[in-house]
Write a structure and sequence with these properties.
alpha/beta; 17% strand
Length: 300
C-alpha cells in the first residue's frame, strides 16, 4: 500500500506555517504526481524549503484530483483512488501553495510541475501562482554536462542523494539538493542560476548519407540534440535531421521507452500526434525501436 514519506499537515497548520518560519527560505521546491494523462489531475504535492543549503521546512499532502486514476500512473507512483478518499481537493490546498510559493523562487525538476499547477489552477478557477521558476534539470545539465541523462533518479544517484522516486516529497527534496550541490560544485549563486543564459547557436545537423534504409525520411528527434549520436546514426542511414516537427516531417524519434509517459505532454510530441491522428504520413517511434532496424547499430 502507498505510504507517503511524511504525514499530511492539516490545512490550518499548513496555512499558518509560513508565519511561523523563523527565517525566509532561499528557495522552495515543489513536485507533483498526477492521476492520469491530464496534467491537471494532481494527486500528491510535496514542497520543501531550503535555507543555507539545508531543509528549512517540508509539506506533503495527497490530493483528490476529482479525476480517474490510470493504471499507468498508479504503477509509477503507487497512488490509487482509494488512497485519496477524504483527502483535500486542489481548490482546498491552493491557499497553502500560495503561502509557500508566492513571492519566492520555486524549483522544479523540469517544468512539468509548473504546467500541472497552472492547469489545475485553471480548471479549479483559482489564481495562478506568482513565483519565479527555476528548472533543476537545466541546473544539472550545466553543472554536470558529462552525465548521459539528467533525469532526477540519474542525477540523484550520481550525487548520492537519497531518493524514493515518484514520491512527491522525496522528489522535491532531491531536486532541492541538486541545486544545493550545484551551487557548491560550481561556485555559482542562486541569482546566477536565475539569470538568463546567452543563447548558443545550434550546431548543424549531420549531412545525410546518399543511400540507406532511412533515405527520404525527414526525422525530428525528441530528447536528444540534433547533432548527437542518435542523429549521427540516423543520418548515416540516409535520414535528414529536422529542427522540429513540421509539415514535411515523416518521423519523430523519441529518446525514451514506450509508452513514453510524460514525454507525451511535450509540444513536439503533441504536434506529431495531431498530424498522425489527422491521417498524415508521420511515424512516432522510440530510439531503441528504430535503432533495432538499422544496420551497424551503435549504442546511444
Amino acid at each position: 500500500m502507498f505510504q507517503p514519506l511524511r504525514a499530511n499537515l492539516s490545512a490550518n497548520a499548513a496555512a499558518n506555517a509560513r508565519s511561523g518560519d523563523t527565517e525566509e527560505p532561499d528557495f522552495v521546491v515543489i513536485d507533483v504526481e498526477t492521476a492520469c494523462s491530464r496534467v491537471s489531475s494532481i494527486c500528491q504535492i510535496g514542497i520543501v524549503g531550503f535555507r543555507n543549503g539545508a531543509v528549512a521546512f517540508e509539506y506533503e499532502t495527497l490530493v483528490d484530483p476529482q479525476d480517474h486514476f490510470s493504471s499507468f500512473n498508479t504503477r509509477i507512483h503507487g497512488i490509487a483512488a482509494s488512497h485519496v478518499l477524504g483527502q483535500p481537493c486542489f481548490a482546498d490546498v491552493h491557499g497553502i501553495l500560495q503561502a509557500r510559493l508566492n513571492g519566492r523562487t520555486t524549483v522544479a525538476h523540469s517544468y512539468f510541475d509548473k504546467g500541472a499547477l497552472a492547469a489545475a489552477c485553471r480548471i479549479n478557477d483559482r489564481a495562478m501562482l506568482e513565483t519565479t521558476w527555476l528548472d533543476s534539470v537545466r541546473v544539472a545539465k550545466r553543472a554536470w554536462p558529462e552525465l548521459p541523462s539528467h533525469r532526477l533518479n540519474i542525477v540523484a544517484k550520481h550525487l548520492d542523494i537519497p531518493l524514493k522516486h515518484h514520491d512527491a516529497l522525496s522528489d522535491a527534496r532531491a531536486a532541492g539538493m541538486i541545486v544545493v550541490k550545484a551551487i557548491d560544485h560550481t561556485g555559482l549563486q542562486l541569482s546566477d542560476w536565475l539569470a538568463p543564459q546567452p543563447r548558443k547557436r545550434a550546431a548543424a545537423p549531420p549531412t545525410p548519407a546518399p543511400d540507406g534504409i532511412l533515405k527520404g525520411q525527414r526525422v525530428a528527434i525528441l530528447g536528444e540534440p540534433r547533432n548527437g549520436r542518435l542523429a549521427q546514426q540516423i543520418a548515416a542511414n540516409g535520414g535528414r535531421i529536422m529542427a522540429s516537427v513540421g509539415a514535411t516531417t515523416t518521423m519523430l524519434v523519441v529518446a525514451a521507452d514506450e509508452p513514453f509517459g510524460y514525454v507525451r505532454y511535450d509540444a513536439e510530441f503533441k504536434k506529431a500526434e495531431t498530424r498522425r491522428l489527422a491521417g498524415d504520413d508521420i511515424h512516432i517511434v522510440s530510439a531503441s525501436a528504430l535503432l533495432s532496424t538499422l544496420p551497424d547499430r551503435r549504442d546511444v
